[in-house]
Write a structure and sequence with these properties.
Number of strands: 19
Structural class: alpha+beta
Number of domains: 3
Strand order of the largest sheet: 9-12-8-2-17-16
Largest sheet: 6 strands, antiparallel
CATH architecture of the largest domain: Roll
Radius of gyration: 36 Å
CATH topology of the largest domain: C8orf32 fold
CATH class of the largest domain: Alpha Beta
Helix content: 40-55%
Strand content: 5-15%
Number of helices: 22
C-alpha cells in the first residue's frame, strides 16, 4: 500500500507537468526529483533537511540501508521480514523506479510497447518466486493490463489522423464506427492471451531457471494451518558456512551424559529428484502445548531418556529452522513458530528466526540395541512408499554398488551397518572439503568412483543407496557435536555444520547413521563390539582441539597454508541441500528449448525493426521490366516513401492526392532540393500509373526513395532517428492486416451460414 501511494504521487506529478506543459526531459526530471524526496521522507527524514531534502547524512543513511538490505537478502529465506528497512527500501524504491520508466515511456514519450520491458522485469521476479496454483490468473491480469495500455495508445494515435481499422463495423449511415478499433483490439488481445496460456503446455519443461518455483518459508496467515514449501533450509546459513573463521553459532547447555552424541538437527530432506535433496511440501500446525507426540515408529520397548537442553543462538545467526536434538518432546521458545509433525521440526513464521534467541528443548535420548534394529518389522506401506522413491535418472551403478556392498546381509539393519562401515572405514573414501564432483545426474557415480568428498556427498549417497535396497531413508542437516567448554557448555561453530542420513526401522523410528569419515561419532548401536552401549567413539571427534572458538581461521588436514595462498582459500564444510552430481549436463532438448526461448526473447524487441527491413527490401527489390509490372512496383515504392516519412514523424494523409502528399512531406520534413526532387519524381510516377492510358515503368524510383529517406533522417534529431529504426510507427500496418484478415474470416463464415442451414433442411 505504501508503494502504491507513492507511485500515485509520482504519476500525479507527471500528469501535472504534462498539462503545464513542460518539455519531456523536464517532466521526467520533475518526477525523478519528487521520487527522491518521497524516498527521503519515508526512509531518511531524520537525516534530511526539513525532512525532505537529502543531504550527506541522508545519502549515508541510504547507503547503510542498501547494505543492510543486501545482507538480509543473503540471510533470509522467502518470505523475508518486512521489518527490515533495507529490504523495504529496495522493494519500494525498485517499484518507483519501474513506475517512472513505464510512465516516461508510455505517457511522456507516448510509446507504450517498450514500456512492457520494465513491467516484464517486475512481473518476472514475482512469477519466479510464486508457488501458487493461480499463477495463470495473475498472468492474465498483468497481460490484460498491458494490452489495454497498447489499445489506449493505438486509439489515441488514430484519433489524431482519422484512420479507422476494422472496416466490418459501420453505422446505419454507412460511416465507419469509432468502436471498431476497440473491438478489433479486443479480438487481437484475446487471441494473444489464448496463445500465451496454451502454447507453454506443449513446450518441454525448463526447470531451475528464473521462473522455477522456490516456495515460501511458512504458511500464510496467523492461524494454525498452512504448509511448508520445498525450499533449501540452509539459504540463511550458506554465506556464513563458507568462511574460514570458525565463529560460534550456538551455545548449548545440556544434561546429556555424553555430549559426543549431541547432534542438533535443523530439518530433514526427504524429496530426492536425482539432483537435489530437499524437504517435501508438508502441512504445518501450531506448536503443541506441553509434550510433543511420540515419534513415528518408536515402540515402548526401546530404552529412552528425556534430556533437558538450553540453546542460545548468536546475535548474528538468523536461521528460519530451529536447531534441536532429535527427537524433541517439547520446546519452550518465544516468537512466532510453526510445527511440522512428520519431521518434528519448528520453522519461523513470516520472518521469525533464531537471531539471539535462548530456548529450552526437551528431547528423547533413544538407545536402541542392535538386536532390536535387526528384528525390526517391515515399515508401514505409507513410509515405504514415500521414503524409498528414486528417480529414473539415478545411475544404475548406485543400486548395483549397494547390492555388492551389502552382499550376505541378513536384514535391513545389517545392510545399513555395512553401508556405513564401507563409507566410513573399509571403502577407502577420503574426507575432502575441496573436492569438485561436478553437477548433473551422473555426479553420484563420479563420487563412488573417485571416493573423495565431504558430508553432503556421503549422506546423500548412503541415503540413495539405502532407498535402492528398500530401506526408507532421508537426509538430516544441522550440526555435529560441538566443543565442550570449561563452564560445562558446548560451543557449536560454523565448522560443525553437518549432514547425515536417517534410516527408518519399525519399532525404533528414524535412526541416525554416520558414514562420513572423521566427522561426528559412530552411533553405539552400530558398533559390533558392544551393541547398545553408549560409549562414545572418542577417536572420531568433530570439534577442534581448542576448547573455545578461535579468532583465527580454522584449517583442515587437506588445506595447507600454501594452498590458501594459491587458491584463494579452502572451502569449509557446508551441507548445502544440493546434490553434487555428474557433469553430463542438461539434455539436448532442454538446451534447444532454452536456445529457442533466448532467441525469442532477443527477437521480440527487434521484431518491428526486422519487419520494416524485410518490407523495405521487398518493396524496393527486384521487379519485372514490362509495362504490366509498372503499376505494382510504382505503388509499392510510393507506399515505402510514405511509410518512411511516417517513421520519421510525418503521419500519412490518405485524403490527399499524390502531388499534395509529396508537397506535405517536403514541407514537414524540411527536405533539401535533391531530396525534394526525388519525392516529387515518385509522386509524378504514381500519377502516371494511376491515370495514364498505358502506364509505363519509371526508372530510378528506388534511388529516389533512398535519397528522400536520407533527407528525412538529416532533418530530425538522434532520438527520432533511433525510433524510426527500432520502433517504426508504420508497423501498425501489421495490426491493420490482422484486422482485415479477421474481418474476411468473419464475412466468409457469415456467408456460409445460410448454406449450412439450407443443406441441413434438405437433409432433414
Amino acid at each position: 500500500m505504501q508503494a502504491a501511494f507513492l507511485l500515485a504521487v509520482q504519476a500525479g506529478v507527471g500528469a501535472a507537468a504534462r498539462r503545464v506543459p513542460l518539455a519531456r526531459p523536464l517532466t521526467v526530471a520533475a518526477q525523478a526529483v519528487v521520487t527522491v524526496l518521497l524516498l527521503t521522507f519515508v526512509f531518511a527524514r531524520e537525516q534530511a533537511f526539513a525532512g525532505l531534502v537529502p543531504g550527506p547524512d541522508a545519502l549515508d543513511r541510504f547507503g547503510l540501508l542498501l547494505r543492510q538490505g543486501g545482507e538480509d537478502i543473503a540471510r533470509y529465506a522467502i518470505p523475508a521480514p518486512l521489518e527490515s528497512d533495507g529490504i523495504r527500501l529496495m522493494l519500494i524504491g525498485g517499484v518507483l523506479i519501474i513506475g517512472l520508466l513505464v510512465d516516461t515511456l508510455a505517457v511522456t514519450f507516448r510509446s507504450a510497447a517498450p514500456a512492457g520491458l520494465p513491467l516484464l522485469a517486475l512481473y518476472s521476479v514475482a512469477a519466479g518466486l510464486s508457488d501458487g496454483g493461480t499463477d495463470w490468473l495473475w498472468f492474465l491480469v498483468a497481460a490484460a493490463g498491458y494490452l489495454m495500455l497498447l489499445l489506449a495508445e493505438g486509439r489515441d494515435r488514430l484519433s489524431q489522423w482519422g484512420r479507422v481499422f476494422g472496416g466490418a463495423s459501420r453505422t446505419a449511415g454507412g460511416e465507419p464506427s469509432g468502436a471498431a478499433p476497440v473491438r478489433t483490439g479486443r479480438r487481437i488481445g484475446v487471441v494473444a492471451l489464448g496463445i500465451a496460456l496454451v502454447v507453454p503446455l506443449g513446450l518441454p519443461a525448463m526447470n531451475g531457471g528464473l521462473l522455477d518455483s522456490v516456495g515460501a518459508g511458512a504458511g500464510g496467515g496467523t492461524g494454525s494451518g498452512g504448509t511448508i514449501s520445498a525450499v533449501n533450509p540452509l539459504v540463511s546459513l550458506r554465506d556464513n558456512l563458507n568462511v574460514d573463521e570458525d565463529r560460534q553459532v550456538l551455545s548449548v547447555t545440556t544434561k546429556m551424559a555424553d555430549v559426543s552424541d549431541l547432534y542438533l538437527r535443523i530439518v530433514s530432506l526427504d524429496d530426492f529428484d536425482g539432483t537435489t535433496w530437499k524437504p517435501s511440501r508438508r502441512s504445518i500446525t501450531a506448536v503443541p502445548d506441553g509434550s510433543f507426540p511420540t515419534p513415528i515408529g518408536l515402540g515402548p520397548e526401546v530404552k529412552r531418556t528425556e534430556v533437558d537442553t538450553t540453546i542460545t543462538a548468536a546475535g548474528w545467526y538468523a536461521q528460519d529452522w530451529l536447531p534441536m536434538p532429535y527427537p524433541p518432546s517439547g520446546v519452550t521458545i518465544r516468537g512466532n513458530w510453526r510445527y511440522e509433525p512428520l519431521g518434528m521440526t519448528l520453522v519461523g513464521d513470516h520472518g521469525q528466526n533464531t537471531r539471539g534467541l535462548t530456548y529450552q528443548v526437551k528431547s528423547l535420548d533413544v538407545q536402541p540395541t542392535a538386536e532390536q534394529l535387526a528384528s525390526a518389522a517391515p515399515p508401514p506401506a505409507a513410509i515405504e512408499r514415500d521414503f524409498t522413491k528414486l528417480p529414473d535418472s539415478l545411475p544404475p551403478v548406485v543400486a548395483r554398488t549397494a547390492r555388492q556392498v551389502t552382499a550376505g546381509a541378513a536384514n535391513p539393519y545389517d545392510q545399513a551397518v555395512k553401508l556405513q562401515d564401507w563409507f566410513a572405514v573399509t571403502g577407502g573414501f577420503e574426507y575432502d572439503t575441496r573436492v569438485q564432483v561436478g553437477s548433473g545426474s551422473e555426479g553420484i557415480a563420479r563420487f563412488l568412483k573417485d571416493k573423495q568428498g565431504f558430508c553432503v556427498h556421503f549422506s546423500f549417497t548412503m541415503a540413495a543407496m539405502a532407498r535402492s535396497l528398500g530401506i526408507p531413508a532421508r537426509v538430516a542437516v544441522g550440526f555435529a557435536p560441538g566443543s565442550p567448554q570449561a563452564d560445562g557448555s558446548v560451543s557449536v561453530g560454523l565448522r560443525d555444520a553437518h549432514a547425515w542420513p536417517e534410516l527408518y526401522f519399525e519399532g525404533v523410528g528414524w535412526t541416525r547413521f554416520e558414514p562420513t569419515p572423521n566427522r561426528g561419532s559412530l552411533p553405539p548401536y552400530t558398533l559390533p563390539e558392544s551393541p547398545g552401549s553408549s560409549v562414545p567413539d572418542v577417536a572420531r571427534p568433530s570439534q577442534t582441539t581448542s576448547a573455545a572458538p578461535s579468532a583465527a581461521p580454522s584449517t583442515s588436514d587437506s588445506c595447507t597454508p600454501e594452498q590458501k595462498k594459491l587458491d584463494g582459500g579452502c572451502a569449509s564444510e557446508s551441507p548445502q541441500a544440493v546434490l553434487p552430481t555428474g557433469d553430463d549436463g542438461p539434455k539436448w532438448y532442454a538446451i534447444l528449448a532454452w536456445a529457442l526461448a533466448g532467441l525469442a526473447v532477443l527477437a521480440l524487441p527487434l521484431a518491428p525493426m526486422l519487419w520494416r527491413l524485410r518490407t523495405r527490401a521487398v518493396r524496393l527489390g527486384a521487379h519485372g521490366r514490362s509495362d504490366a509490372d509498372a503499376v505494382p512496383h510504382t505503388l509499392a515504392v510510393w507506399q515505402e516513401l510514405t511509410d518512411t516519412a511516417w517513421d520519421f514523424g510525418i503521419a500519412p494523409d490518405e485524403s490527399q492526392t499524390p502531388r499534395k502528399a509529396a508537397a506535405r512531406i517536403v514541407r514537414l520534413g524540411s527536405l533539401d532540393a535533391t531530396a525534394a526532387a526525388s519525392v516529387h519524381r515518385v509522386a509524378n510516377a504514381v500519377e502516371q500509373v494511376l491515370y495514364a492510358p498505358r502506364p509505363r515503368p519509371t526508372p530510378g524510383l528506388t534511388e529516389d526513395v533512398r535519397r528522400a529517406a536520407a533527407g528525412l533522417s538529416a532533418g530530425v534529431g538522434r532520438g527520432t532517428r533511433l525510433r524510426a529504426v527500432l520502433v517504426p510507427r508504420s508497423t501498425v500496418r501489421v495490426v491493420w492486416a490482422m484486422s482485415a484478415w479477421w474481418s474476411g474470416v468473419r464475412e466468409r463464415a457469415l456467408a456460409l451460414r445460410p448454406t449450412w442451414r439450407k443443406a441441413s433442411g434438405q437433409q432433414g
